[in-house]
Amino acid sequence: MKRVYPAEEFCVACRLCEVYCATEHSQSRDVIRAFKEEQPPPTKRIFLQQEGAASLAINCRHCDEPRCVWACVAGALTKDPVTGVVNYQPEKCIGCWTCLVACPYGVIVRDPNRPKIAKCDLCPGRDVPVCVAVCPNRALVLS
Amino acid sequence: MPKYLIVGNSAGGIAAVEAIRQVDPKGSIAIVSDEPYPAYSRPAIAEFLMGERPFDERMLFRDADFYSRNRVETHLGVKVLRLDVGGRKAVLDNGEALPWERLLLATGGTPIMPPMQGLALEGVHTFVTLDDARRLRQALLNGAKRVVVVGGGLIGCSLTHSLLQYGGVQVTLVELRERILTTMMDTPTSQRVEARLRKLGVQLLTGRSVVRVLPDAPGARVGGVLLDNGEELPCDLVGMAVGVRPRTELAHGTPVRVQRGFLVDRHMETSAPGVYACGDAAESHDFIYGASRVVAIWPNAYIGGRIAGFNMAGDAAQYDGCTAMNAFSYFDLALASGGMFDPEAQEECTTLSKESGEVYRKVVLKHNRLVGFVLLGDIEQSGVLYRLMQEQVDVSQFQEHLVADNFGLVKLPRPLRQAWIREDGRVPQKATAPAGRAHKAVE
Ligand SMILES: Cc1cc2nc3c(=O)[nH]c(=O)nc-3n(C[C@H](O)[C@H](O)[C@H](O)COP(=O)(O)OP(=O)(O)OC[C@H]3O[C@@H](n4cnc5c(N)ncnc54)[C@H](O)[C@@H]3O)c2cc1C
Fold this sequence. Notes:
The complex is a heterodimer.
Chain A: E1 4-6, H1 16-24, H2 31-36, E2 47-51, E3 54-58, H3 67-71, E4 77-79, E5 86-88, H4 98-102, E6 109-110, E7 117-118, H5 130-134, E8 140-142
Chain B: E1 4-7, H1 11-23, E2 29-33, H2 45-50, H3 66-69, E3 72-76, E4 80-84, E5 89-92, E6 97-99, E7 102-105, E8 109-111, E9 124-126, H4 130-141, E10 146-150, H5 154-163, E11 170-175, H6 187-199, E12 203-206, E13 210-215, E14 222-227, E15 232-234, E16 237-240, E17 244-246, E18 275-277, E19 284-286, E20 291-293, H7 298-312, E21 325-328, E22 335-339, E23 350-356, E24 359-366, E25 369-376, H8 382-390, H9 414-422, H10 437-442
Parallel strand pairs in B: 1-2, 1-7, 2-3, 7-18, 9-16, 10-11, 10-16, 11-12
Antiparallel strand pairs in B: 4-5, 5-6, 8-17, 13-14, 14-15, 19-20, 21-22, 22-25, 23-24, 24-25
Helix pairs in contact in B: 1-7
The complex binds flavin-adenine dinucleotide.
Flavin-adenine dinucleotide sits between chains B (7-13, 32-35, 42-43, 45-46, 79-80, 106-109, 127-128, 154-155, 158, 247, 250, 279-281, 296-299, 301, 327) and A (73, 96, 98).
């Protein structure tokens, strides 16, 4: 399956991926309104990390061996047998945080607006996830 | 005749069904449980008790069509009374006997009831099943106001948290040890939770125990509890949450060996060929303690059941074990811990810790390896720590980063983080499945 790979040699930590990821998952899907007006504020599902000159943006790997799915006590995380996407059903999530301890990449987070998790869904409905589409340096690659 | 028979319809049992069906689409599967429901999320009984979630598809662990889609014959609300291992059949309490070629014992745990008078009084409840939650909810809706929770572990805290959502209910939490949550927290984090509980109005009694449940005046219902110091606390309800122990009674009179839980090898097979076990009922290899232990958490039950399922279907898969993987989410506190997070002095570990405001981080190191951690308040990177621990990575070159506020993948040596990212989440783990197993299914 295709997933988003960070190419850290091209990442300049501009955080556009984070901004557009949050916008894509906002109510209005409009970047100005999402950040200036919306309550609750939008949440991102890709995370820029920096150490000195090194930086990379990372999101859910939709693992072939998804430890979060095996750890999920609620059945809210499942692996789609056809697409390979690790799907998340928020209405089932009980916010127990067990998947956070299971995920080896640190890319599942507590949703700041409700007692549930948030994670990358690969932008259903788009050909290419928005983080990949907006990255000015091709530092995020779908392959 | 079922080829595969599974006792226990929860984390371990469902995982086994899913693994068996990945390997063997046809072999007949039967699952038996004395709970009369399709598999549900056991931890979500807390949501149910709070009234936040009815028992509907949101509480089910898998979709309503799970059993038909996987062609699983269900025997729900039926108990297995005993096993005839030589004759390969299970005797049920409805008079039937089910034969098997491969058997999985995913029987979970039973609440521990310390011997004391008064446990049979109306108003004494455990908190491990949906039916427990139903009875407690009914009692609260009927007006119970004063509750004594016996045991300050995860289940006692979960129960307390749900009780606090009922207006006007007063909770007293009694814990035998000097602090609560010893199986998942170190002293500083336990103390944070204790302070929070007191702030929420919970009466917390540590270093105390309940020695008897007292009847009310008519004599059939709970009227109070007697403590070990002679004090009496009046109450309407008692929640017993001192722990669970492996439910292993089916091994009696069979060659299936039991210590604390069913003993299994790395393929999850017991001492009786063709009989497998997993989850809260079994012991697993703890790769940090280097010993066989009961690790009663959902992920261990699921992964153990999955490994058992692959092996039952003839695909050799090996479980390299697990260690504590804890998450805590009650009272508006978030905590994650793993491994040997509170080492005994003789373990000769070093610890690094850092505290700032609401956030606390601690890692435990031994021979340059990470062997345990506790995170409070900022837990998102706990899984990175867990994996460093599981793969026994030499962390000496970057150990101070492990407790840094901005710890994450980028803090790992570049070759390591790039290898992790490139592997497509086909975690190089003999620990969980044959290489490429799930991969095969999605291609
Ligand atoms: C309130 C609460 C909160 C929890 N929170 C968490 C959490 O946040 N994170 C976490 O990791 N874990 C949590 N746990 C623990 C978790 O639920 C268990 O580790 C997990 O359910 C173990 O799964 P299992 O398949 O081994 O057994 P179980 O879930 O115990 O299921 C075993 C089933 O087998 C049935 N059975 C047993 N013997 C027989 C028989 N002879 N005949 C027929 N049926 C039989 C039982 O009735 C039961 O339905 C929590 C538990 C509780 C009670």
